[in-house]
Specification:
Layout lengths: L10 E2 L5 E2 L2 H15 L27 H7 L1
Antiparallel strand pairs: 1-2
Amino acid sequence: MLFCRIGVSALRSDDGTVITSDTSKVELLNDYFSSTCTRDNGVLPAFDKLVPNDVEFSSVTFTPDNVAKVM
């Protein structure tokens, strides 16, 4: 489980203002991360099929150990 014990410390906005209220920090972080993302244009890229049509799987399991090995 992810959790934070002490919260997010004060942040500085682009104009140098120190941001301390939780609501303002949330808005500042949301604005920043929203600006770094790419908007989906709805166009799916074409990929060549790499496996025969009769190949399928029914489940995928992610465990902390599996993820740690890959990372």
